[in-house]
From TrEMBL:
Protein name, UniProt field: Calcium-binding protein
Segments of this protein annotated with the region Disordered: 196-221
Xref: InterPro entries: TSP_type-3_rpt
Organism encoding this protein: Nonlabens ulvanivorans (Persicivirga ulvanivorans)
Listed SUPFAM superfamilies: TSP type-3 repeat
Stretches with biased composition (Acidic residues): 202-218
Organism domain of life: Bacteria
Length: 314
């Protein structure tokens, strides 16, 4: 029997069906037809499939991971144990040997459902037609982290290079959804995402409102113009003419009493991208063996939202 293999790999080195008969192939992709009517493994590159994982606690307090992909009647999974902080430490982690960790490819009788993995009791269907087990190889995980306060302003424009912290609350602007610490979210302070220099500047002092803790220039900090003390100055309004306008954007002597001494809770997201690859992979099924010099398993993406209340800075 001959296997038809199409790995997402830089080089497929060899495929053989009998331990005594060895056939070497050194080509980018090996496509070998099956002429005896037996089972064909059609596609192992999982192009377009999403790398998923069984539940990972938000605090990352785990050392056991199960990454997997499903492509109709094919699945591939990687069970990995490590004490390395692969979720939040930007680095290339590994190598993790497949001698002590598990890689498994399955060809199934029918399409695998979304609940095929991560169950305490393995599903009874679909049935497995053939399994390749990773016997050897080194797994590497390259982790990159992207943090974002979701205010629409790029991290570069928010001074990520210098960890700019306009309100000195301990959160750099690029993960601070209230850059100036006035309890009005940056995204609600008239930012012009096309040209930040054209953002709203109520008092005309040259500092846009989203970076100005006294937006109307009346000498009263915006955070203290929160008369109902609900940590949202935007909903404290005064009738000016026929319009209701927030106190913090008009000259007014009204102040919160007692004074506000708390920042509103802040949220920012952290996205971890885990690029998973395997070097010198050897996978076997009965007497069949596949050896791949470099296999790109795929990228697992995990986003976690963090809520934090910064220490108050008067």
């Amino acid at each position: 029997m001959t296997l038809k293999i199409n790995f997402k790999a830089r080089i497929v080195i060899l495929i053989f069906e009998d331990m005594k008969k060895l056939l070497y192939l050194i080509i980018p992709i090996a496509l070998i037809g099956c002429d005896d009517g037996d089972l064909i493994l059609e596609d192992l590159d999982f192009e377009g499939a999403t790398v998923q994982a069984c539940e990972i606690p938000d605090d990352g307090d785990t050392s056991d991971y199960l990454f997997y992909m499903i492509n109709d009647t094919e699945t591939i999974s990687l069970q990995l144990s490590t004490i390395d902080d692969i979720l939040s430490s930007e680095a290339t982690h590994g190598p993790y040997s497949l001698i002590t960790n598990d890689l498994e490819y399955r060809k199934l009788s029918d399409a695998a459902g979304s609940d095929y993995f991560c169950n305490d009791i393995p599903p009874s269907s679909p049935t497995t037609l053939q399994t390749f087990i990773g016997e050897d190889g080194d797994v590497y995980i390259t982790t990159s982290i992207e943090e974002e306060d979701n205010d629409g302003i790029s991290a570069v424009d928010e001074g990520i290079a210098t960890l700019q912290d306009t309100d000195m609350d301990g959160l750099p602007d690029y993960i601070d959804e209230d850059d100036d610490g006035d309890n009005v979210l940056t995204i609600n302070e008239g930012i012009n995402l096309t040209d930040l220099s054209l953002s709203q500047d109520t008092d005309g002092d040259g500092t846009p409102d989203y970076l100005d803790n006294d937006d109307d220039g009346d000498g009263i900090p915006t955070i203290q113009e929160d008369l109902n003390r609900d940590l949202s100055p935007a909903n404290d309004r005064l009738l000016v003419g026929t319009d209701l306008q927030p106190y913090y954007l008009i000259n007014s002597i009204e102040m919160a009493s007692p004074a506000i001494d708390t920042f509103r809770p802040h949220e920012y997201s952290s996205t971890a991208n885990l690029d998973i690859s395997i070097e010198d992979l050897t996978a076997t099924s009965d007497s069949r063996e596949i050896i791949i010099a470099f296999y790109e398993f795929g990228t697992f993406v995990r986003t976690v939202t963090t809520t934090i209340t910064p220490n108050f800075v008067p």
